[in-house]
Amino acid sequence: MVVLNRIYTKTGDAGETTLGNGARVAKHSTRVNAYGTVDETNATVGLARLHASGEIDAALQRIQNDLFDLGADLCRPDMERDAEAGHAPLRIIESQVLRLESEIDTMNARLAPLRSFILPGGTALAAHLHLCRTVSRRAERLVVELATMEEVNQEAVKFLNRLSDWFFVAGRIANADGTADVLWVPGLTR
């Protein structure tokens, strides 16, 4: 259980932070950038939820919780069981990836196939979901970069890859099931 009695600790004043395993690292490290961008993704989801309701809002709430799981996963570089805590670190698991895939398939079944790329926009919810998509893509790039340097849970990489697709399809749903998508017209302003 997390207990936060004090918000500031001054332990980061020299430009370092503590990972979930107690190790100290630079705040600009790839690992901190990766889970920091996951946190940024979560904040954009919070903005999207201001415009969401019903099933989309419920799904976004689940995604926010999963993003906290992902942050917990990424802040623990050691993949082994934590002997002191007596349990394995929290990790993204296959069922979380499969749930996203199932939700993508269900939403996509309602949509006509795309015949053009779409521009981020349309409804306020769709625009916010496209922001979620681009920030989650950046998080994915950082996690993939981290995986070239250190061991990373591959389900975390898969989760981020599916998540950006989820945001894309949900953005189309938010645009009246794609009928209000803003289509890209190549060379329109030439």
TrEMBL record:
An MF annotation (GO) of this entry: corrinoid adenosyltransferase activity
Catalyses which reaction(s): 2 cob(II)alamin + reduced [electron-transfer flavoprotein] + 2 ATP = 2 adenosylcob(III)alamin + 2 triphosphate + oxidized [electron-transfer flavoprotein] + 3 H(+); 2 cob(II)yrinate a,c diamide + reduced [electron-transfer flavoprotein] + 2 ATP = 2 adenosylcob(III)yrinate a,c-diamide + 2 triphosphate + oxidized [electron-transfer flavoprotein] + 3 H(+)
Location of this chain's protein in the cell: Cytoplasm
One annotated Gene Ontology cellular component of this protein: cytoplasm
Keyword line: ATP-binding, Cobalamin biosynthesis, Cytoplasm, Nucleotide-binding, Transferase
UniProt main location, coarse: cytoplasm
Documented EC number(s): 2.5.1.17
Pfam families: Cob_adeno_trans
UniProt pathway: Cofactor biosynthesis; adenosylcobalamin biosynthesis; adenosylcobalamin from cob(II)yrinate a,c-diamide: step 2/7
GO biological process: cobalamin biosynthetic process
Domain Cobalamin adenosyltransferase-like: 7-173
Keyword Cytoplasm set for record: yes
Similarity annotation: Belongs to the Cob(I)alamin adenosyltransferase family.
Protein name from the UniProt record: Corrinoid adenosyltransferase
Record lineage: Bacteria, Pseudomonadati, Pseudomonadota, Alphaproteobacteria, Rhodobacterales
